[in-house]
Amino acid sequence: MQTMMAFLATALIVTTQPVAALECQYGTVSSDYWWHKARSETYVLVWGGFFDLGKSQADAVNPGDVEFGAEVEVWTATFKGFRASRRAFDQPFETEVTLVFPDFSFIGGGHNTAGDAERLPGKTGLVWLEQTEDGYRVISELCASVIDTNAENVKPALRCLRGGYCPKE
Predict the structure, then answer these.
(1) How far apart are CA 110 and CA 128, in angstroms?
(2) How far apart are CA 10 and CA 8, in angstroms?
(3) How many CB atoms are closer than 10 A to CB 116?
(4) Residue 48 to residues 12, 29, 133, 164: CA-CA distances in angstroms?
(5) Does pTM surpass 0.70?
(6) N-term to C-term CA, the chain
(7) Closest by alpha carbon to 95, among 50, 140, 139?
(8) Pairs from 104-111 (Cβ < 8 Å, separation ≥ 24)
(9) CB of 50 within 8 A of CB of 78?
């Protein structure tokens, strides 16, 4: 009986470790800022929301653009909101956006992010838009939401954008 209990305890510890390794580490406003700034792509930080969402063609995205080569669901939407000036998000900004939602359900602890598209209407927040040759796009990530609806993150984001206190973590 003791041998069986020891075996079960060991099996439990060993089998749960990979799941713990895939646990998401959510970033902060400053870590997100530095990550986007270090990228070779051009990103624009805006405040607003998505309107007129509709499904689009999945072939609009290169497989190499998505983490782990996951299958995707592609949507289009109109983003309406503001770009930042030195003091606030006060420059009106409206554009068409391609939204890419990968299916990470094949990864332990992952999920299909396509359901996030249905939760976007009515949400307002910070969004990092990637500027591409074809316009703007957002690719949902395994551990990050497309839109940061926490209003408390606006001031730290503006501080980072204007070169104020923005620690690299």
Answers:
(1) 22
(2) 5
(3) 17
(4) 45, 16, 22, 23
(5) yes
(6) 49
(7) 50
(8) 104/67, 104/68, 104/70, 104/142, 106/70, 107/22, 107/68, 107/142, 108/18, 108/19, 108/22, 109/19, 109/22, 109/23, 109/24, 110/22, 110/142
(9) yes
* Contact assessment for residue 62 and residue 100, using Cβ atoms and an 8 Å cutoff: no
At 163, list the tokens: 């070169």
Instruction: Return the residue matching tokens 């030195």.
Output: 86
Distance CA 73, CA 67 (A): 14
What is the structure's pLDDT at 58? 56
Integer-rounded Cα Rg, in Å, for the chain is 19
Cβ atoms of residues 63 and 39 within 8 Å: no
pLDDT digits (tens, 9 = 90+) for 122-148: 899 999 999 998 899 988 776 677 899
Q: Token digits for 161?
A: 């954008």
Pairing state of beta strands 135-139 and 125-132?
Answer: antiparallel
